[in-house]
Amino acid sequence: MTHGSVAAARLSLRGTDVPIGIYISSTDPTTTEIAAAAGLDFVMIDGEHGPLDRHLVLGHVRAAKAAGIVPIARMLEGSDTQIQALLDVGCAGVVVPKVETAADATRIVRASRYAPTGRRGMCPACHDGGYSVNGFRDRMTQRDRETLVIPIIETRKALDNIAEIAAVDGIDVIHFGPGDLSADMGLDLAIDLPVLRDAWVTVRDVCHAAGKALLVPDNMGFEGGDLYIWPMELMLLRSTLEAMMRDRAAGAQ
Question: Which one of the listed residues 49, 55, 127, 175 is annotated catalytic?
Answer without folding.
Answer: 49
